[in-house]
From TrEMBL:
Family: Belongs to the HIBADH-related family.
Coiled coil: none
Organism superkingdom: Bacteria
Limits of the 6-phosphogluconate dehydrogenase NADP-binding domain: 7-166
UniProt name for this protein: Tartronate semialdehyde reductase
Amino acid sequence: MSATSRKIAFIGLGIMGGPMAANLVKAGHTVTGYNRGRAPVDALAAAGGRGADSIAEAVREAEVVITMVPADPQVKEVVLGEGGVLEHAGPGTLLIDMSSITPQTSLEVDAAARDKGLRTLDAPVSGGEAGAIEGALSIMVGGDPDDFADAGPVFEALGTTIVHVGPHGAGQTVKAANQLMVAIHLQSLAEAVVFLENAGVDLKAALEVLGGGLAGSTVLARKRQAVLDRDFKPGFRIDLHHKDMGIVTDAARAVGAPLPVGALVAQLVASARARGDGGLDHCALLRGVERLAGRATH
């Protein structure tokens, strides 16, 4: 084992967590995974990791514990709850929560962890399933600078843009801003697509040239083919983006920041979810614009 290798427990092996854990294995770390469903644990074991039947078993010898779960309730359950990380991880363990949650919950986790002698970082990510698979995530990290430096070999296996953005909770604040911008980009892409199609323009050609100009974005680059194919297989579900829009709306209100466009897009995300699209990829906001245009959705 190299000097930069870590014994890592990875809690939450979903769409994002599964490939992230596999990339840590590829980078030479010893990774023990736990997930409620067994299939992702077996997949990690097949990729060279280890499987655990409980959080206690996963974290027992870990130097680093990573949590990657859907929302605040799950973070509180797996970290603070009975049988959770704080009950079983040893003093000095570095707990890195890479979920997207409220800054307040990150601060609550940090306070509880410090009482147990653990260190924490909040390190949410952007880049979706493709970024997780490619090890090309953008990682925004809040916490102590020394702990950030200590986590360097872990983050380098997962992402290409890794930035310490401030104290505990700052990572989640930046992630909220990220999700605000992504939702607005997706909605503007959806509106442009319907406009272009209604005008009879070759959509593939139009999106290609738009991608090369000032309108180009990572959202357009990542979602162009899915939009062309109307392939809404989830890389990041509307249900989760709905949760994130609630986070940014509440956080912005708390600091007195207006979100005139963001508030509208939050309602459109909520509408998509109410219409039964919550399990689809967030580029399925296109379906809402198609409905407004009087089209039957696929």
